Structure formats: structure tokens, C-alpha cells
Amino acid sequence: MTEIRAIVTDIEGTTSSISFVRDVLFPYARKRLPAFVETHGNQPEVQHWLHETAREAGLVEASRQDIIELLLQWIDQDRKSTALKALQGMIWKDGYAAGDYRAHMYPEVAARLRDWRADGLRLYVYSSGSVPAQQLFFRYSEAGDLSPLFAGYFDTETGPKREAESYRRIAEAIGEQPAHILFLSDIVEELDAAQSAGVHTGWLIREPQALPDSPRHPVFSDFNAITPST
Ligand SMILES: CSCCC(=O)C(=O)COP(=O)(O)O
Ligand SMILES: [Mg+2]
Questions:
Q1: What DSSP assignment string belongs to 75-120?
Q2: What's the pLDDT tens digit per position in 114-124?
Q3: Is ipTM beyond 0.95?
Q4: How confident is the model at residue 100 (pLDDT cuts 50, 70, 90)?
Q5: Which of 8, 11, 106, 125 has the most ligand 1 atoms within 8 A of CB, as the residue to mutate?
């Protein structure tokens, strides 16, 4: 492997469990979204994302109630909408601040991120969650405040995670050739896209998931199994 200088990691299913996102964060946002939109719907940033929601759905004239219904459907469908993710992030902020939950981290993740930083690697996040949501996630993690370990965050405003161009943009933004970057994810289509852009890949397949017969990316059962060559 060429020298790896930067690691870009996904969150859900990679650093953290899918069930924390689906069973804790999503229901928290779902329950509070109608009141949040009613209370904060006139704030410019919230207004912007409500407008983007309607635009994404192709709705020309949508009432606030229509948009709320749509967003609730999208939460149930786990739609990776940039607008939904931005609004969810704003709602989650209160839950973290109140101590209602802390972000799940697989047990080895924090120590391994620290090792990589100590080895001089730069760490980044690329997730469908909005950048503010990612920052909260690592700041209020079960393993303490991990946010100082990261040099930057990318969300779907950079582009969809299943498109190669998004990984080229990330490489450019962090000032590295794709060949010096390792992208970690649990989703093979994201890894395919990263590989098409020339980025190295690591496929996190955690127990009890079965290993594929002939995986098209290097497979790791956890972060301890990853040794980026530097
Ligand atoms: C940033 S925390 C919330 C994660 C989230 O909403 C999500 O959709 C996770 O997607 P990922 O790209 O990290 O698999
Ligand atoms: Mg994932």
C-alpha cells in the first residue's frame, strides 16, 4: 500500500452502531420535529432547510404541515437527504446538551483514533449526518470528547457518498492525493465510489455480520485490525 497520510471515516456502522443512530437518534428527532419546526420555522437557517425539503420533493406550494409530514416519512425511510440531516442535527443538539444520550463508539475506536493521530495521520469524517451533527456526535461520545482528534468533517453538501466525485472533492479539500487516503465504511457502494476515485478502502464488517465470499475491498472486523502503512 502507498503511504497513508489521512483517514476518512464513516460513522454509522463504522465507528458506531447502526442501532444507536436508528433506535436512539432517529426516534428522538422524529418525536421533536413537529414542535421544532413550529417553534423555529421562522429562523433563517431552519427556513432554508424547510425550503430545500420542499424543493427536493418537487413541491411547489407546500404548507408547513406538508413539509413536517414529508420529513417524518423521510426519517422512517432513512432517506439521506441533506435538508433532513441538517434539521435532525439541530434537534439532536438539545438531547446531547441535556445528557439524554451520548454517541455510541465501538470499544476500540477511540484508542485507535488516538494511535493514528500519534502516528501523524490526519483524521476526517465523511457521513450523511450534517457536519454540525457529526461534530456533536464526536464531542458528546461515550468515550469522551473525541472532536479534537479530527481535522475536518464532510457531509452530503460535498456530494453523495456513493459517487466517486465526492471522494475527489474530499481529497482536494484536504490537500492529499487520493492514493494517500484511506476511507473506512460499512457500505460497499460507498467503498466502490471511493475506490473509483483512487482512494484506498477498508470495509468494516463487524460481528455478527457474515463475511462476503469474495469481498472487493479489504475487510476489517474492527479498527484494531487496520494497520495503515505509513
Ligand atoms: C452524524 S450522526 C447521524 C448519522 C446519520 O444521520 C446518518 O445518516 C449516518 O450515516 P453514515 O453516512 O454515517 O452511515
Ligand atoms: Mg455507514
A1: HHHT---HHHHHHHHHHHHHHHHTTS--B---TTHHHHHHHHHHTT
A2: 999 999 999 99
A3: yes
A4: very high
A5: 11
Which residue bears the cell 404541515? 65
Verify that 174 and 91 share a domain, yes or no. Answer: no
Concatenating the DSSP letter of every residue in 140-153 gives TBTTB--GGGEEEE
Pocket test for ligand 1, best of 90, 128, 150, 156 (most atoms within 8 A of CB): 128
**pLDDT of res. 84:** 98
Pocket of ligand 1 (CB under 6 A): 10-13, 21, 25, 80, 85, 127-129, 133-134, 137, 161
Ligand nearest to the CA of 185: 2
A 10 A CB-CB count for 133 gives 26
Measured from the alpha carbon of residue 82, the closest ligand is 1
Any domain includes 202: yes
Question: Would you call 57 helix, strand, or coil by DSSP?
Answer: coil
| Residues 74 and 174 both lie in one domain | no
Distance 115 CA to ligand 2 centre (A): 22
Percent of the chain residues topping a pLDDT of 70? 99
| pLDDT, tens digit, 9 for 90 and up, residues 170-197 | 999 999 999 999 999 999 999 999 999 9
**Alpha-carbon dihedral 191, 114, 151, 186, rounded to 10 degrees:** 20
Question: Domain check: are 114 and 163 in the same one?
Answer: yes
**CA 207 to ligand 2 center in whole angstroms:** 15
Ligand 1 test: best mutation among 19, 21, 71, most atoms within 8 Å of CB?
21
